């Protein structure tokens, strides 16, 4: 089956075409075609993953490609690259996307003819993500990377028309789409520059060439460092890391199903995947991995602060996504740093610790996909019932929406790191990786402290959200929804919630049944790098976590965060207003204004971006167009001047001829005189 890997992204792409042509004439305007395409991709992914993991080639990557085109001596290829990381990514991306598409049948049921455009765009979005995952080289990956960027622009701006559901953010969907497109393009330009650097250094962008230790050693280290830093610039943009993080909260202007896709199964995971896929190159310089870890750790803490007082249910989840992405990048950075210094010193223990960081980052990426898709889809179920995203207008929905409330509670427990839920395992492994790296660099110890504080904030703001939505007295919109018979969402929406809830609870246990071996990152005796093939007894993770005193610290902090949220928003024994002086404290205002980043982006756009745009416009109009228009004007003017000599009078023509002969005669005599002929 592995030779059919190319079908995994091709099937959703074919669905995009079919929906575009025939969607209007099909049930659900192409919805069932999109669901079928995602389901087929998942089945193919499962079959290919099973064949690879049980086959003779495992753990060596299976690669196949064809020549796309030549540029001189340079050959660019199209193909697939299958290893343990590929298998994990394509499985959870296609599986979660299938559930989101099923959920969309209920959530987008009132969109009429617009559903055709929606299902076509999400199919192409999925094709972009799956194509990026199975790509055999960075150029192919970059193409699918840009496909997702285009689809995100279209989907975030889907509700650019006036829509009754949600808050004022829907009215700004077009602006949010443009902001997402432009900010991520800034990172994409960095990534493209990095690929040019790698292409110049290696003469190829194929993974098999770039991950070859002999070719890596032949490249100038400074050139490789520059290339990887530029590539990480693309990660900062696509995975919304500081300082290019502010586009993601505004992206909530799109449908909640789109938010689920972007935050859980596609797009923002692409940046984390790029770091994981390019790990053999990133670990060549410990300073690069230090930078990666610092960006991730700071992003995790910084973005969590903005969720503490936000009243929009989707934006709270958006900030939690930013924070969890920071965890993933921190883990990969810490693991890469340990692996890099381990390679330099020949220390196998450090390389093993670095591998643990790599596993933790990838493991958290998978777990986060499950519980964040669940949380967003639960928020969509709530919004669908009450018609608002403002949590102040909710409350008391627990009895009215029992399935949504229970599944969202399970997702909240998971992301909060409650013991034995999926988020608990991967989050604590991430924090442990940062602590291990802190023994070798004090900056990682600072990141460890920030990660611990972030764990407390995560538990607090997630249960603040749950209590405000489902507990306490019924809010204005809850009462309104109850009066009009809006109870639990339809089965097309609740069934995916129940399935995802199972994974939000149990996916963490996969670490005990071989997932770590599938994701392990090792350097073989030959020097080659390899993903997969490691072996650790599963219960070693259980023993390691529960004999580590810092594990209990994170558990206690999570429980304290939940308890404080309970006292504030259920018991009301603590008045939230007392902490922020009823919204008048400086910190409260700063967090509400998102640390001023929207204003900063606007100022940069108007003062720098607008100035550059006016300069380019001037050059285009006055220099480029001016030159072209000037030449054409000279030709036209000259023609008009010459045309005036065409009088039709024979006497005028004979006079001109005689004048010309006289001038030529004088010129002939002068030239002959100069040449000495006369």
Describe this structure in words.
With 678 residues, the protein is mainly alpha-helical. The protein has helices spanning 7-22, 31-54, 84-107, 114-134, 138-156, 173-202, 207-210, 213-217, 221-238, 247-250, 256-265, 268-277, 279-282, 286-305, 313-345, 348-386, 402-415, 422-438, 442-470, 476-483, 491-506, 515-519, 538-546, 549-571, 577-580, 586-592, 597-643, 650-674; strands at residues 62-71, 74-82, 521-523, 529-531. The strands form two sheets. A two-stranded antiparallel ribbon has the order 1-2. Strand 1 (62-71) and strand 2 form a beta hairpin. The N and C termini lie far apart (94 Å).
Features:
mainly alpha; two-stranded antiparallel sheet; 28 helices; 4 strands; 72% helix; globular
| Mean pLDDT over all positions | 89
Which regions contain 5 or more consecutive residues with pLDDT less than 50?
Answer: 165-171
- Structure summary, number of beta strands: 4
Total number of helices = 28
Question: How would a textbook summarize the main sheet?
Answer: 2 strands, antiparallel
Task: Give the % helix.
Answer: over 70%
| Rounded Rg | 30 Å
Strand ordering within the main sheet:
1-2
Class from helix and strand fractions: mainly alpha
**Strand residue percentage:** under 5%
Report the span from N to C terminus. 94 Å
Morphology: globular
